[in-house]
Amino acid sequence: MLTSNISKRYGDSFMLDVDFTLDDDIMAVMGSSGAGKTTLLECIAGLTAPDEGEIVLNGGILFSAERDIDLSPGKRKVGMVLQDNALFPHLTLMNNVLFSRSRVTDEDRSLAVKLLDELNIAHLKDKYPGEVSGGERQRAAIARALIMEPDILLFDEPTSSLDKRTSRDAFALIRKISSEKCIPVMIASHDDMVRSITGNILYLCHGRQLKVCDDPDDFTEPWDQG
Amino acid sequence: MDLSPLYVSLRIALISTAINIFVSFLCVYAGMRNDGLRRVIDVIATFPMVLPPTFVGFIILMTFGLRGPLGSFLNSVGVRVVFTVLGAVIASSVVSFPMVYRSMDAGFRSVDTNYVKAAKVLGAGDRKIFFVVLLPLAWPSFFSGVILGFSRALGEFGATLMVAGNIPGRTQTLPLALYFCVEQGDLKTAWLYGAVIVAIALAASLSVELLSEKFVSKRVSR
Q: Using a CB cutoff of 8 Å and minimum separation of 24, what contacts does B207-215 make?
């Protein structure tokens, strides 16, 4: 379970001001460009430090302004698939998946192949990211995040570079991973298709949390309400 | 045609390029860890580029001359800089340093920050990020910086003449030999030296072009 009650300022205005709890299910973070979706994910991953508040994952404090705790990204057990996947172009898919290992053992290799196999791309393990399709790159990025056995999985605009059909497959895959691994998943997305896999939506507008909606039928764009 | 200026030039350019690779590498690495330090290095690295090479040579001469702060010390331990190959190497290194450093630095800084973020989330420390992510991705800029620095070192004239003089077979480089051929009216040899310089410059430019293409085609996304 993730609880996050944080704020981050840029000058006098808020870049981010949220307070929510996420159980072991999927939460979509929606909002227009510059709403703070990526900033929120980066705060949870430890890439950006909030100014105030606390982030707690499964009882462990990842960040606390009051207690001066700010765990480094590698110690947070947070898996993140960044926008455009950010697979290292000079490494094969296999070596991308094994990147988080400081000394690669045979067990690590077997685990990497198993993960790639679960995602149906084991046959591409020796290919470079530039040699495979966008959907296959995304699966490799997911395998790279999963090998860390994360306690939460974050996706930043997972369908931004995918066509409609591949986007649908990508969201179905995310839902499958969430239910099989029993870990919470947060998806920052512009894509309305994200509502097909979750009704749990956190709306952000200029960094502020407008509302958390847990009923997919109870949906109106908060920024359209006037 | 006396080929000794070619050998002297290649020797000096190769040594100074090797020194510049090492120093630039350290500077880029230090600069990436400390933004303030990077700004200081940037300013220092710009000087040899904006100052006239003869003035750079003059500063080196004053520093490494027998009465200079470093020169007097080095002389006391039996090392002479002025009018030696070492002097030519120092002059060449200082003048060509900005080319190597700036290309390398630009290459490292142009790497998509998403790769650095991905590496951090995967638990990589600064050293792993630098050597496993940034260095391979910045390799084309790194290589072109090395070639540009080598070419600049090969063509160095003013500072080298000031510090190392023009001693045939020891410190007389191709540009110096060409200049003195023209001064003595030996235009035929001057043209030959010029052709050698053009051939080396062409080979350097071509290798940068070919290597860049190779890297770009390998990383192109579908």
A: B207/B147, B208/B143, B208/B144, B208/B147, B208/B148, B211/B140, B211/B143, B211/B144, B212/B140, B212/B144, B215/B139, B215/B140
Q: Which residues of A touch B120 (CB under 8 A)?
A: 46-47, 72-74
Residue A31 phi/psi, 5-degree rounding, is: 160, 165
- Contact check, Cβ <8 Å, B222/A79: no
Dist. CA B137–CA B145, nearest whole Å: 14
How far apart are alpha carbons B83 and B105 in whole angstroms? Answer: 33
Could you list the pLDDT tens digit for every one of the 226 residues in chain A?
A: 888 888 888 777 767 888 888 887 899 999 888 888 999 999 999 999 999 999 999 989 999 999 999 999 989 999 999 988 899 999 999 999 999 998 899 999 999 999 999 888 999 999 999 999 988 999 999 999 999 999 999 999 988 878 888 888 888 889 888 888 888 999 999 888 888 888 888 888 877 777 666 554 554 555 444 3
Query: Considering only alpha carbons, which residue of chain B is nearest residue A46?
Result: B121
Residue among A72, A90, A103 with most chain B CBs within 10 A, to mutate:
A90
Phi-psi label, residue A206: left if phi above 0, alpha if psi -120 to 50, beta otherwise: left
Contact flag B218-A130 (C-beta cutoff 8 Å): yes
d(Cα B134, Cα B111) in Å, to the nearest integer? Answer: 7
Identify each DSSP E strand in chain A by its residue range: 2-10, 13-22, 26-30, 52-57, 60-64, 69-70, 78-81, 152-156, 185-188, 201-205, 208-213
B168 vs A: CB within 8 A: no
Is the pTM here over 0.80, yes or no? Answer: no
For B156-179, b where at least 16 C-beta lie within 10 A, e where not — what string? bbbbbbbbbbbeeeebbbbbbbbb
Tell me what ipTM this predicted complex has. Answer: 0.88
CA distance linking residue A160 with residue A152, whole number of Å = 21
Nearest chain A Cα distance for residue B74, angstroms: 45
Cα–Cα distance for residue pair B3/B5, rounded to 1 Å: 6
Q: Environment class of residue A5 by beta-carbon count within 10 Å: exposed (0-12), middle (13-18) or buried (19+)?
A: middle
